[in-house]
């Protein structure tokens, strides 16, 4: 897509905990701040509504497909401010009753749900001191999800997905990639910025990554560094730690100039020699 309009966006950073009501109240303040600053699209981090693996299934059970307290909150908040709202992520019921889907829902400025993406790659990590195995509690999605916005085509992904470039290529030429995240401080320090900038450079698009950033109830530490990166790989804005908003202008002319100057997307070999 080459048409579209420039857009001011905000990526929100939070330190969510196990209480949905407290998380939604914190998110409401940050979204209001973003809307007041003129953002047309606001993106929330992974687990913004609930960061606690124990409570996920119970909370998901209150959500039907299309409505429930967290979805209603997202729809109402988008409509109240007249913004595109990326609610990444909330737990939704899975096929396997013992697990949940870790889902991003996108609402337009009228509060209509326009996209759903379920995290496809489930994080696993064990360095002896820290251990994560998301497959115990989360059921992986299997569908790529993109949606057309006034700026251009938006591709959805979540956290650990960031390590899998083939997912982004399967989106086929998006203008903005969203990566709501809760990266661990350990892996984030090592890889976060490099991965975000690589995805922006190789896909020649903007990347916005709203993240959890700080020390959570129970002691879990997330990396934060909520970031918006431009198609040349420049970090436009970043917040190291703590709740807050990260704002940037998405510029269609800049996007077109990067793609024209260095037409790497057009140079891809889709017929690699064996
Ligand atoms: O890929 C990583 O290093 C962190 C991923 C993660 O924390 C997650 O997917 O929740």
TrEMBL record:
UniProt entry keywords in alphabetical sequence: Acyltransferase, Hydrolase, Transferase
Database matches in InterPro entries: C-N_Hydrolase, C-N_Hydrolase_sf, Nit1/2_C-N_Hydrolase, UPF0012_CS
MF-aspect GO terms: acyltransferase activity; hydrolase activity, acting on carbon-nitrogen (but not peptide) bonds, in linear amides
Keyword Hydrolase on entry: yes
Signal peptide segment: none
Superkingdom as given in the UniProt entry: Bacteria
Start and end residues of each CN hydrolase domain: 7-252
Family statement: Belongs to the carbon-nitrogen hydrolase superfamily. NIT1/NIT2 family.
Protein name: Acyltransferase
Species for this entry: Pseudazoarcus pumilus
Biological classification of the source: Bacteria, Pseudomonadati, Pseudomonadota, Betaproteobacteria, Rhodocyclales
